[in-house]
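Hello everyone,

My group is preparing for a crystallization screen and wants a predicted model to guide construct design. The compound we'll soak is pyridoxal-5'-phosphate. Before spending weeks at the bench, it would help to have a computed complex in hand. I've included the protein sequence and the ligand's SMILES below. Output in C-alpha coordinate form would be ideal because that's what our pipeline reads.
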Amino acid sequence: MAGRPQRVADAPLNTPMTLASTYVAGGDLGYGRFGNPGWSALEEAIGALEHGWALAFATGMAAANAILETLPRNGKLVIPSNCYLGVAALAQDRARRDGLQVVPVPATDTAAILSAAEGADVVWLESPTNPMMDVADLPTIGAALSGTATRLVVDNTFATPVLQQPLSLGADVVLHSATKFMSGHSDALLGALVTRDDAEFTQFDDIRKTQGATPGTLEAFLVLRGIRTLPLRVRAAETSARTLSHRLSTNDGVSRVRYPGWGSLLAIELPTAEDADAMTSATRIWVNTTSLGGVESTFERRRRWPAELANVPEGLIRMSVGVEQVDDLWLDLLQALQGTGSR
Ligand SMILES: *Cc1c(COP(=O)(O)O)cnc(C)c1O
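Reply:
Good plan to model first. Here are the C-alpha coordinates for the complex, ready for your pipeline.
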Protein backbone atom coordinates (compact mmCIF):
# COMPACT_ATOMS: atom_id res chain seq x y z
CA MET A 1 0.00 0.00 0.00
CA ALA A 2 2.74 2.47 0.93
CA GLY A 3 3.86 4.53 -2.04
CA ARG A 4 0.90 3.51 -4.20
CA PRO A 5 -1.77 5.83 -5.63
CA GLN A 6 -5.24 5.92 -4.10
CA ARG A 7 -7.30 2.94 -5.18
CA VAL A 8 -10.06 4.65 -7.17
CA ALA A 9 -11.54 3.86 -10.57
CA ASP A 10 -9.04 4.24 -13.40
CA ALA A 11 -6.20 5.30 -11.12
CA PRO A 12 -2.86 3.90 -12.29
CA LEU A 13 -1.43 1.14 -10.06
CA ASN A 14 1.93 2.88 -9.92
CA THR A 15 2.68 6.44 -8.88
CA PRO A 16 3.46 8.12 -12.21
CA MET A 17 6.67 10.00 -12.73
CA THR A 18 6.17 13.74 -12.38
CA LEU A 19 8.65 15.39 -14.71
CA ALA A 20 8.50 18.94 -13.39
CA SER A 21 11.14 21.48 -12.50
CA THR A 22 8.51 23.79 -11.03
CA TYR A 23 4.89 23.91 -9.90
CA VAL A 24 2.11 26.49 -10.10
CA ALA A 25 2.40 28.84 -7.11
CA GLY A 26 0.20 28.53 -4.05
CA GLY A 27 0.85 24.89 -3.07
CA ASP A 28 3.23 22.98 -0.82
CA LEU A 29 5.81 21.91 -3.42
CA GLY A 30 6.72 25.20 -5.06
CA TYR A 31 9.85 24.17 -6.93
CA GLY A 32 11.35 20.93 -8.24
CA ARG A 33 14.24 20.95 -5.78
CA PHE A 34 11.86 21.12 -2.81
CA GLY A 35 9.70 18.11 -3.57
CA ASN A 36 8.24 15.70 -6.09
CA PRO A 37 5.22 13.35 -5.83
CA GLY A 38 7.46 10.48 -6.96
CA TRP A 39 9.96 11.09 -4.14
CA SER A 40 7.09 11.24 -1.66
CA ALA A 41 5.75 7.87 -2.82
CA LEU A 42 9.20 6.32 -2.49
CA GLU A 43 9.74 7.92 0.92
CA GLU A 44 6.42 6.55 2.10
CA ALA A 45 7.54 3.04 1.16
CA ILE A 46 11.03 3.32 2.69
CA GLY A 47 9.57 4.91 5.83
CA ALA A 48 7.08 2.07 6.18
CA LEU A 49 9.85 -0.53 5.85
CA GLU A 50 12.15 1.15 8.39
CA HIS A 51 9.38 2.38 10.71
CA GLY A 52 10.29 6.06 10.47
CA TRP A 53 10.15 9.08 8.16
CA ALA A 54 12.32 8.80 5.09
CA LEU A 55 13.98 11.33 2.80
CA ALA A 56 15.41 10.34 -0.58
CA PHE A 57 18.75 11.75 -1.75
CA ALA A 58 20.69 11.73 -5.02
CA THR A 59 23.01 8.93 -3.81
CA GLY A 60 23.95 7.08 -0.66
CA MET A 61 26.95 9.40 -0.32
CA ALA A 62 24.71 12.49 -0.59
CA ALA A 63 22.67 11.05 2.29
CA ALA A 64 25.86 10.31 4.27
CA ASN A 65 27.07 13.84 3.64
CA ALA A 66 23.80 15.29 4.93
CA ILE A 67 24.44 13.56 8.27
CA LEU A 68 28.01 14.86 8.50
CA GLU A 69 26.73 18.35 7.67
CA THR A 70 24.79 18.31 10.96
CA LEU A 71 27.98 17.82 13.01
CA PRO A 72 29.44 20.88 14.73
CA ARG A 73 32.90 22.24 14.00
CA ASN A 74 35.44 20.19 15.99
CA GLY A 75 32.72 17.61 16.63
CA LYS A 76 33.44 13.98 17.39
CA LEU A 77 32.49 11.05 15.16
CA VAL A 78 33.00 7.37 16.01
CA ILE A 79 33.14 5.17 12.90
CA PRO A 80 33.98 1.49 12.29
CA SER A 81 37.66 0.92 11.55
CA ASN A 82 36.35 -1.01 8.56
CA CYS A 83 33.51 0.76 6.85
CA TYR A 84 32.46 1.75 3.35
CA LEU A 85 35.49 3.51 1.90
CA GLY A 86 33.47 6.48 0.64
CA VAL A 87 32.23 7.23 4.14
CA ALA A 88 35.73 6.84 5.59
CA ALA A 89 37.10 9.27 2.98
CA LEU A 90 34.30 11.77 3.58
CA ALA A 91 34.93 11.71 7.35
CA GLN A 92 38.67 12.24 6.81
CA ASP A 93 37.90 15.14 4.51
CA ARG A 94 35.81 16.77 7.23
CA ALA A 95 38.58 16.11 9.74
CA ARG A 96 41.04 18.06 7.56
CA ARG A 97 38.58 20.80 6.69
CA ASP A 98 37.01 21.64 10.01
CA GLY A 99 38.62 19.64 12.73
CA LEU A 100 36.13 16.80 12.97
CA GLN A 101 37.59 14.29 15.42
CA VAL A 102 37.20 10.89 13.74
CA VAL A 103 37.63 7.88 16.03
CA PRO A 104 37.82 4.51 14.23
CA VAL A 105 36.76 1.53 16.35
CA PRO A 106 36.20 -2.12 15.32
CA ALA A 107 32.46 -2.62 14.75
CA THR A 108 32.60 -5.88 16.70
CA ASP A 109 34.13 -4.32 19.84
CA THR A 110 31.06 -3.11 21.75
CA ALA A 111 33.01 -2.02 24.84
CA ALA A 112 35.41 0.08 22.73
CA ILE A 113 32.50 1.65 20.83
CA LEU A 114 30.70 2.61 24.04
CA SER A 115 33.83 4.05 25.60
CA ALA A 116 34.62 6.04 22.42
CA ALA A 117 30.99 7.24 22.44
CA GLU A 118 31.74 9.42 25.51
CA GLY A 119 31.38 12.99 24.29
CA ALA A 120 30.78 11.91 20.69
CA ASP A 121 28.17 13.68 18.57
CA VAL A 122 27.56 10.62 16.43
CA VAL A 123 28.36 6.93 16.63
CA TRP A 124 28.24 5.67 13.06
CA LEU A 125 27.84 1.96 12.49
CA GLU A 126 27.60 -0.25 9.51
CA SER A 127 26.40 -3.75 10.17
CA PRO A 128 27.45 -5.94 8.49
CA THR A 129 30.41 -3.79 7.43
CA ASN A 130 31.53 -3.30 3.85
CA PRO A 131 33.54 -5.36 2.86
CA MET A 132 34.72 -7.24 5.98
CA MET A 133 31.25 -8.43 7.01
CA ASP A 134 31.74 -7.52 10.69
CA VAL A 135 28.51 -7.51 12.69
CA ALA A 136 27.94 -4.93 15.44
CA ASP A 137 25.85 -5.62 18.52
CA LEU A 138 23.16 -3.08 17.59
CA PRO A 139 20.68 -3.95 20.37
CA THR A 140 23.29 -3.40 23.11
CA ILE A 141 24.77 -0.25 21.56
CA GLY A 142 21.32 1.13 20.72
CA ALA A 143 20.10 0.60 24.28
CA ALA A 144 23.25 2.12 25.80
CA LEU A 145 23.08 5.28 23.67
CA SER A 146 19.35 5.88 23.76
CA GLY A 147 18.47 8.94 25.80
CA THR A 148 22.05 10.26 25.57
CA ALA A 149 23.20 13.25 23.52
CA THR A 150 25.11 10.91 21.21
CA ARG A 151 23.16 10.02 18.09
CA LEU A 152 23.43 6.52 16.66
CA VAL A 153 23.57 6.34 12.87
CA VAL A 154 23.31 2.94 11.21
CA ASP A 155 24.15 2.32 7.57
CA ASN A 156 21.63 -0.45 6.84
CA THR A 157 22.57 -0.90 3.19
CA PHE A 158 23.86 -4.47 3.59
CA ALA A 159 21.12 -5.86 5.82
CA THR A 160 18.17 -4.03 4.23
CA PRO A 161 15.00 -3.47 6.31
CA VAL A 162 13.98 -7.02 5.41
CA LEU A 163 16.62 -8.43 7.77
CA GLN A 164 17.24 -5.59 10.25
CA GLN A 165 15.38 -2.45 11.35
CA PRO A 166 17.86 -0.31 13.30
CA LEU A 167 15.36 2.36 14.44
CA SER A 168 13.62 -0.36 16.43
CA LEU A 169 16.99 -1.26 18.01
CA GLY A 170 17.68 2.26 19.27
CA ALA A 171 19.25 3.92 16.23
CA ASP A 172 18.42 7.60 15.63
CA VAL A 173 19.11 7.66 11.91
CA VAL A 174 19.20 4.92 9.27
CA LEU A 175 21.17 5.42 6.07
CA HIS A 176 20.66 3.52 2.82
CA SER A 177 22.51 3.34 -0.39
CA ALA A 178 19.29 2.45 -2.22
CA THR A 179 21.56 2.04 -5.23
CA LYS A 180 22.12 -1.48 -3.92
CA PHE A 181 19.35 -3.82 -2.72
CA MET A 182 16.40 -1.43 -2.81
CA SER A 183 16.93 -0.66 -6.47
CA GLY A 184 18.06 -4.24 -6.96
CA HIS A 185 18.73 -4.10 -10.68
CA SER A 186 22.01 -2.18 -10.97
CA ASP A 187 20.39 0.63 -12.92
CA ALA A 188 19.98 3.57 -10.53
CA LEU A 189 21.83 5.63 -7.92
CA LEU A 190 19.83 6.84 -4.91
CA GLY A 191 20.23 7.31 -1.17
CA ALA A 192 17.89 7.62 1.79
CA LEU A 193 17.84 8.72 5.43
CA VAL A 194 15.19 7.60 7.89
CA THR A 195 14.53 9.08 11.34
CA ARG A 196 11.69 9.38 13.86
CA ASP A 197 12.81 12.79 15.07
CA ASP A 198 10.94 15.81 13.72
CA ALA A 199 13.76 18.30 14.13
CA GLU A 200 16.29 15.94 12.59
CA PHE A 201 14.00 15.27 9.64
CA THR A 202 13.59 19.01 9.00
CA GLN A 203 17.34 19.54 9.23
CA PHE A 204 18.01 16.81 6.64
CA ASP A 205 15.25 18.17 4.40
CA ASP A 206 16.79 21.65 4.55
CA ILE A 207 20.24 20.28 3.71
CA ARG A 208 18.83 18.36 0.75
CA LYS A 209 17.12 21.53 -0.52
CA THR A 210 19.98 23.96 -0.08
CA GLN A 211 22.71 21.59 -1.24
CA GLY A 212 20.62 20.27 -4.10
CA ALA A 213 21.25 16.63 -3.17
CA THR A 214 17.92 15.63 -4.69
CA PRO A 215 17.15 12.30 -6.37
CA GLY A 216 16.25 12.05 -10.04
CA THR A 217 12.62 11.45 -10.99
CA LEU A 218 13.40 8.28 -12.94
CA GLU A 219 15.68 6.97 -10.20
CA ALA A 220 12.98 7.42 -7.56
CA PHE A 221 10.53 5.53 -9.80
CA LEU A 222 12.98 2.69 -10.38
CA VAL A 223 13.82 2.29 -6.70
CA LEU A 224 10.15 2.27 -5.73
CA ARG A 225 9.58 -0.45 -8.32
CA GLY A 226 12.60 -2.35 -7.00
CA ILE A 227 11.22 -2.26 -3.47
CA ARG A 228 8.13 -4.21 -4.61
CA THR A 229 10.30 -7.32 -4.91
CA LEU A 230 12.84 -6.48 -2.19
CA PRO A 231 11.84 -9.22 0.31
CA LEU A 232 11.64 -11.86 -2.43
CA ARG A 233 15.04 -10.96 -3.83
CA VAL A 234 16.73 -10.69 -0.45
CA ARG A 235 15.34 -14.01 0.81
CA ALA A 236 16.14 -15.91 -2.38
CA ALA A 237 19.69 -14.56 -2.47
CA GLU A 238 20.14 -15.24 1.24
CA THR A 239 19.28 -18.92 0.79
CA SER A 240 21.86 -19.21 -1.97
CA ALA A 241 24.48 -17.22 -0.04
CA ARG A 242 24.15 -19.58 2.90
CA THR A 243 24.63 -22.61 0.64
CA LEU A 244 27.60 -21.03 -1.11
CA SER A 245 29.25 -20.02 2.18
CA HIS A 246 29.12 -23.65 3.34
CA ARG A 247 30.52 -24.98 0.08
CA LEU A 248 33.25 -22.34 -0.14
CA SER A 249 34.39 -23.02 3.43
CA THR A 250 35.21 -26.62 2.47
CA ASN A 251 37.26 -25.58 -0.56
CA ASP A 252 41.05 -25.80 -0.18
CA GLY A 253 41.66 -22.78 -2.40
CA VAL A 254 39.74 -20.49 -0.01
CA SER A 255 41.61 -19.37 3.13
CA ARG A 256 38.63 -17.85 4.89
CA VAL A 257 34.91 -17.28 4.41
CA ARG A 258 33.35 -14.25 6.07
CA TYR A 259 29.60 -14.80 6.31
CA PRO A 260 27.55 -13.57 9.29
CA GLY A 261 25.08 -16.47 8.89
CA TRP A 262 22.41 -14.31 7.29
CA GLY A 263 22.05 -11.94 4.34
CA SER A 264 23.14 -12.32 0.76
CA LEU A 265 26.62 -10.83 0.93
CA LEU A 266 29.79 -12.60 1.89
CA ALA A 267 33.51 -12.18 1.52
CA ILE A 268 36.14 -14.80 0.87
CA GLU A 269 39.88 -14.57 1.27
CA LEU A 270 42.26 -16.14 -1.20
CA PRO A 271 45.97 -16.48 -0.37
CA THR A 272 47.16 -13.69 -2.68
CA ALA A 273 45.93 -10.76 -4.78
CA GLU A 274 46.97 -12.74 -7.88
CA ASP A 275 44.77 -15.68 -6.88
CA ALA A 276 41.84 -13.33 -6.33
CA ASP A 277 42.39 -11.53 -9.65
CA ALA A 278 42.62 -14.89 -11.43
CA MET A 279 39.36 -16.02 -9.87
CA THR A 280 37.37 -12.86 -10.56
CA SER A 281 38.39 -12.92 -14.20
CA ALA A 282 37.58 -16.61 -14.75
CA THR A 283 33.81 -16.77 -14.24
CA ARG A 284 31.03 -16.74 -16.79
CA ILE A 285 28.02 -15.99 -14.56
CA TRP A 286 29.57 -13.94 -11.76
CA VAL A 287 30.46 -10.46 -12.98
CA ASN A 288 33.70 -8.85 -11.86
CA THR A 289 32.36 -5.45 -10.91
CA THR A 290 31.90 -3.16 -7.97
CA SER A 291 28.56 -2.43 -6.30
CA LEU A 292 26.21 -5.05 -4.95
CA GLY A 293 22.61 -5.94 -4.20
CA GLY A 294 21.49 -6.58 -7.78
CA VAL A 295 19.61 -9.60 -9.11
CA GLU A 296 22.83 -10.66 -10.83
CA SER A 297 25.71 -12.14 -8.85
CA THR A 298 28.69 -9.81 -8.73
CA PHE A 299 32.07 -9.90 -7.01
CA GLU A 300 35.34 -8.04 -6.89
CA ARG A 301 38.71 -7.95 -5.18
CA ARG A 302 38.28 -4.91 -2.98
CA ARG A 303 41.93 -3.88 -2.80
CA ARG A 304 41.91 -3.30 -6.56
CA TRP A 305 40.69 0.14 -5.42
CA PRO A 306 43.64 2.22 -4.21
CA ALA A 307 41.30 4.00 -1.75
CA GLU A 308 40.25 0.76 -0.05
CA LEU A 309 41.37 0.63 3.58
CA ALA A 310 44.75 -1.05 4.10
CA ASN A 311 43.36 -3.40 6.78
CA VAL A 312 41.31 -5.19 4.11
CA PRO A 313 43.32 -8.28 3.01
CA GLU A 314 44.77 -8.10 -0.53
CA GLY A 315 43.11 -11.38 -1.49
CA LEU A 316 39.65 -10.50 -0.16
CA ILE A 317 36.79 -10.85 -2.65
CA ARG A 318 33.44 -9.35 -1.71
CA MET A 319 30.58 -11.37 -3.18
CA SER A 320 27.01 -10.22 -3.78
CA VAL A 321 24.80 -13.22 -4.44
CA GLY A 322 22.01 -12.70 -6.96
CA VAL A 323 18.91 -14.71 -7.76
CA GLU A 324 20.38 -17.13 -10.31
CA GLN A 325 20.23 -20.89 -9.81
CA VAL A 326 22.54 -21.70 -6.90
CA ASP A 327 24.18 -24.75 -8.51
CA ASP A 328 25.04 -22.72 -11.58
CA LEU A 329 26.61 -20.11 -9.31
CA TRP A 330 28.55 -22.76 -7.42
CA LEU A 331 29.89 -24.58 -10.51
CA ASP A 332 30.99 -21.24 -11.94
CA LEU A 333 32.92 -20.43 -8.76
CA LEU A 334 34.36 -23.93 -8.55
CA GLN A 335 35.82 -23.90 -12.05
CA ALA A 336 37.25 -20.42 -11.43
CA LEU A 337 38.83 -21.60 -8.15
CA GLN A 338 40.37 -24.61 -9.86
CA GLY A 339 42.09 -22.18 -12.20
CA THR A 340 43.67 -20.30 -9.28
CA GLY A 341 45.07 -23.49 -7.70
CA SER A 342 46.83 -24.65 -10.87
CA ARG A 343 48.69 -21.44 -11.64
C1 LIG B 1 27.54 1.87 -1.85
C2 LIG B 1 27.50 2.20 -0.40
C3 LIG B 1 27.39 3.52 0.03
C4 LIG B 1 27.39 4.69 -0.93
O1 LIG B 1 26.23 4.73 -1.70
P1 LIG B 1 26.15 5.37 -3.19
O2 LIG B 1 24.72 5.17 -3.55
O3 LIG B 1 27.13 4.62 -4.04
O4 LIG B 1 26.52 6.80 -3.06
C5 LIG B 1 27.30 3.74 1.40
N1 LIG B 1 27.35 2.73 2.28
C6 LIG B 1 27.47 1.45 1.89
C7 LIG B 1 27.52 0.36 2.91
C8 LIG B 1 27.56 1.13 0.54
O5 LIG B 1 27.70 -0.14 0.15
